[in-house]
Every structure is written in structure tokens, then in C-alpha cells.
Write a structure and sequence with these properties.
This protein is mainly α. The protein is built from 2 helices and no strands.
């Protein structure tokens, strides 16, 4: 993975941590204020954008890795 992927992963994780913190702060009723809803929306958008980019930019590599693992398992089954 390249540096952009690592940075996007960190940004997505940080956005999800921010989202979790919003939920923790609003336990037990989870009734977010208008301002908190705006923050939630921005953090969700940030996480989704980064995750989509990570997925799309690395889809071919991940698919190739899956195929390689499938072939390894098939080879073990034949022995």
C-alpha cells in the first residue's frame, strides 16, 4: 500500500472515532443537537469518501490477493 492509502485509512479511522465519541457523549438517549448532527454528517462523509478511495484504488490488488489465497487453498486440498 502506498502513503496515500495509509493516510486515507488514518483519516477514515479518525472520522469513525469522532463519530463514536459523539455517540458516547449522547448516551443513553442519542439525541444529537443540530450542531452535532452537522458534525456527524461531515464525519460520515469524510469516512465514506476515504473508504471509497481506498477501496477503488486498491481493488485490483485486493482481488489478486484473494485469488492467490484461493489458489493456495486449492493446492493444499489436492495434496
Amino acid at each position: 500500500m502506498d502513503e496515500n492509502t495509509v493516510n486515507r485509512t488514518k483519516a477514515a479511522i479518525n472520522a469513525l472515532i469522532d463519530i463514536e465519541q459523539l455517540w458516547i457523549e449522547n448516551t443513553p438517549d442519542y439525541n444529537l443537537s443540530t450542531q452535532e448532527l452537522v458534525v456527524l454528517k461531515k464525519r460520515l462523509e469524510r469516512a465514506m469518501e476515504n473508504i471509497s478511495k481506498i477501496y477503488e484504488e486498491n481493488k485490483a490488488k485486493m482481488t489478486a490477493a484473494e485469488e492467490e489465497i484461493k489458489k493456495m487453498h486449492e493446492g493444499k486440498r489436492r495434496k
